Structure to design on (158 residues):
């Protein structure tokens, strides 16, 4: 009698597990972006919607140049006015007159974490990025720097 109860409980347990098997999530596949665009250093970036990163909201409807800025507060992805005149690849020190003028043209600073120095301390430089548009999210991957695959992911609001 006791063996038949054990067999019956085992059968019930196996049926319960196998009935929920299809409900388990499948292995997640990485999403493919709807659009991918590569921006060269110095090329104007124009977001289609509001870009939100934490409490930072980058306005749409205007265009920006993208820089990496590093100072004593950290390393930042900087969104500056498109009429800023700095040649791609040129490093600008923040304590110079050109650096002070450039700091006045920066609208947004988005903090980024990096394991390597992208630019020297107290300097700024134009960067190239790859923009992967996933619809509700936009990722900007900084390319051509010592820190590979440095990515900032924004939520997009239209």
């Amino acid at each position: 009698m006791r063996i038949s109860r054990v067999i019956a409980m085992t059968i019930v347990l196996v049926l319960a597990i196998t009935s929920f098997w299809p409900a388990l999530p499948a292995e997640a596949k990485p999403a493919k972006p709807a659009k991918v665009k590569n921006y060269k250093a110095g090329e104007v970036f124009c977001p289609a919607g509001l870009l939100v990163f934490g409490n930072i909201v980058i306005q749409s409807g205007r265009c920006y140049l993208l820089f990496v800025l590093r100072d004593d507060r950290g390393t930042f992805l900087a969104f500056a006015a498109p009429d800023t005149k700095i040649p791609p690849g040129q490093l600008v020190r923040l304590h110079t007159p050109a650096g002070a003028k450039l700091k006045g043209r920066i609208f947004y600073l988005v903090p980024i974490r990096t394991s390597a120095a992208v630019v020297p301390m107290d300097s700024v430089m134009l960067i190239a990025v790859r923009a992967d548009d996933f619809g509700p999210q936009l990722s900007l991957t900084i390319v051509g720097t010592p820190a590979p695959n440095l990515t900032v992911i924004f939520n997009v609001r239209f």
Notes: The longest strand covers residues 150-157.
